[in-house]
Structures are given as C-alpha cells and as structure tokens.
Amino acid sequence: MPFSMKKSTQSKLGSQDVAQDLDILNKYKVTHILNVAYGVDNAFPNEFTYKKMSILDLPETDIASFFPECFNFLEKVKLQNGVVLVHCNAGVSRAPAIATGFLMYDEMNFAKALSIVKNSRPAACPNPGFMEQLYKYQETIRRPEDMMHEKTD
C-alpha cells in the first residue's frame, strides 16, 4: 500500500507489489509511476506515464547521479497536478532514497526529509551508501540562508 510523502506533491512510496496492483493504483488516483527498481518491468504502460530508471540497491551505486532525471520527472508530475508512485522492488532503499533526495531538492534539510519519508513508510531504510550520498547532497544544495542560521546559532 502506498503512503503519502508530502500531501502537496501528491507523491506515494511503495514496492513493486503496489506498482503491479491496478486496483490500488486507481484507488490512490496514481497518474505517473517512477520505477527505480532493477529488473522490474512497467506493469501498465498504457494506463500510466512511466519513468524507468534501473538502479541497483548496492551501497556503491551512485544513486545521486540519477537525481536530476528523477527530480525532473517528479517536477513535471507536480506541475501537472498528477499523483506519482515512486517504487523499487521492496520500497525500502532505492525509492525512499529518491523520495528523500527530492524533498531535499524541494528545499528541505536531510534530517527533516528522511523523517517525513520514514513516517510515511516505516519500512524505509536507504542502504548506508545511499544515506552517505544523501548527506553529501545536502551540502551541494545548501542555500546561503541555511549557512547564516548556522553561524548565528
């Protein structure tokens, strides 16, 4: 069953089981699917708009290199007022890592973004390599106002 990441973006997180259940997808009014699983085909190519990114769930996988293309797709869904399911095989590591990164890209710090993802999907647990990349990603997107708060705190 998918869980909302953030109501304003109409994003859902789930596993390949959810992505292959047309009744659930229709129940949650999903319009787009971001498939970041490796070896999982898009189940309903005629019913939904898909973006498929085959990402291995290994700590050494450079998941951050997939961020721009994934985030571009998620932004388009947002602009179209669509509902997107972000899924991988089990919905534990890759999809939550992409969701966390997108929330960070959407002006949220790492801790808050990860907390929202984990509250939305308690099974979420990006692998250690993905966690390290997300932490480093935070440094690349820091805004000047973030740094000013650190200096005054």
Automatic annotation (TrEMBL):
SUPFAM superfamilies: (Phosphotyrosine protein) phosphatases II. Residues 71-122 form the Tyrosine specific protein phosphatases domain. One of its GO terms (cellular component) is cytoplasm. GO terms for biological process: regulation of JNK cascade. PROSITE patterns: TYR_PHOSPHATASE_2 (PS50056), TYR_PHOSPHATASE_DUAL (PS50054). Residues 2-143 form the Tyrosine-protein phosphatase domain. GO terms for molecular function: JUN kinase phosphatase activity. This is Dual specificity protein phosphatase 19. It comes from Xenopus laevis. The lineage of its organism: Eukaryota, Metazoa, Chordata, Craniata, Vertebrata.
